[in-house]
Amino acid sequence: MTGRFVLKIGDHLENAETKKYYTERNFSEVAHRYDFITRALSFGRDSAWKRALIALLPSYESPVCVDLACGTGDIAFLLADRYPRGRITGVDITEPMLDIARGRNGHPNVSFANRDMGSLDIASGSVDIVTGGYALRNAPDLGTAIDEISRVLKTSGVAAFLDFSKPDGKIPQKIEYWVLKTWTGLWGTLLHRNHEVYSYIAESLERFPDRARLRKIFESKGFSVIDSRLFFAGVTELLIVQKLRHVSEHSAAAEPA
Ligand SMILES: C[S@@+](CC[C@H](N)C(=O)[O-])C[C@H]1O[C@@H](n2cnc3c(N)ncnc32)[C@H](O)[C@@H]1O
Questions:
Q1: Which residues line ligand 1 (CB under 6 A)?
Q2: What structural domains does the chain harbor?
Q3: Atom number in ligand 1 closest to CA 67
Q4: Bridging pattern class, strands 236-243 and 64-68
Q5: Whose CA is nearest to atom 13 of ligand 1?
Q6: Residue among 94, 146, 239 whose CB has most ligand 1 atoms within 8 A, to mutate
Q7: Quick one: which atom of ligand 1 is closest to the CA of 133?
Q8: Quick one: pLDDT at residue 248?
Q9: Please, is 110 exposed, middle or buried when counting C-beta atoms within 10 Å of its C-beta (0-12, 13-18, 19+)?
């Protein structure tokens, strides 16, 4: 690290290229504290939520799994425990996060690669399970990321996502925004002298579809929602979808408004 992180969120989140640049810089800054802060921000619940995600996945003997935005590797390692004969690839764009994941890796069937979730460089229809912990909200472009998930998944393949989640309605959204912004800003100020490093969560969530709309986007892209669990009164959600068919970019219906 080369001194204090001063990049401002500003309008970095408004287009795909600058969002990707911002998130990579931001997660490089927080990588060494990521595991600690994830537990702290979630009041210690993050590990249980990740275990719940794994428990809801279907039984497979030796599935091919891809963990998007794998960070320091938590979900990839849980997948390896659940599917000892599976093949698990964790992908992320932030090298300091991947370095920690590789350093923690004691599983012969887990590997990590520097890839953007919108361009996975994985054969079409070759993956049984896609997972993502706090992943889709970071996508430079959500539609592109979901198209890519659909492309790599086999028909009937399953994708499971754990993330902060936006309720329906302007007032609950505003309350959630300010609670998250205050709580995460406090930790950013304490640990990095910069309230923005973690309040990125509130800012990125504000620009993310609410729960109902996220479902509609998945459905418009050929998925069906097969399970959902809310934690902390809906501040976080575990969403499980199944690919019914591949809707190609060109034939996709316009995203619902
Ligand atoms: C909040 S962390 C989640 C880490 C891990 N999945 C977990 O549940 O603890 C978000 C991760 O998304 C990664 N990320 C951001 N943009 C990405 C992209 N376009 N493609 C892949 N990973 C990305 C970041 O580098 C970071 O490691």
A1: 20, 23, 27, 38, 69-71, 74-75, 91-94, 97, 116-117, 133-135, 138-140
A2: 12-164+209-243 (3.40.50.150)
A3: 6
A4: unpaired
A5: 69
A6: 94
A7: 8
A8: 72
A9: buried
Q: Which two tokens stand for residue 156?
A: 């009937």
The two three-digit tokens of residue 140, written as one number: 């430079």
Mean pLDDT value across the chain: 92
pTM, rounded to two decimals: 0.93
Question: Using one digit for the tens of pLDDT, what is the confidence trace for 88-126?
Answer: 999 999 999 999 999 999 999 999 999 999 999 999 999
Per-residue exposure over 138-173, b if at least 16 CB sit within 10 Å of its own CB, e if not: bbbbbebbbbbbbbbbbeebbbbbbbbbbbeeeeee
Query: CA 80 to CA 58: how far, in whole Å?
Result: 14
User: What sign does the CA torsion over 12, 185, 96, 134 have?
Assistant: negative
Residue of 93, 137, 200 with the most ligand 1 atoms within 8 Å of its CB, for mutation: 93
Question: Closest Cα to atom 20, ligand 1: which residue?
Answer: 116
Best probe residue, ligand 1, of 12, 27, 146 (max atoms within 8 Å of C-beta)? 27
Nearest to 134 by CA among 157, 112, 105, 163: 163
Look up residue 132 and give its amino acid.
G
- One-letter amino acid at 205 equals L
CA distance linking residue 86 with residue 63, whole number of Å:
5
pLDDT in tens, 209-238: 999 999 999 999 999 999 999 999 899 999
pLDDT at 194: 84
CA 97 to ligand 1 center in whole angstroms: 8
List, for the chain, all residue ranges whose pLDDT scores fall below the cut of 70.
Answer: 1-7, 10, 249-257
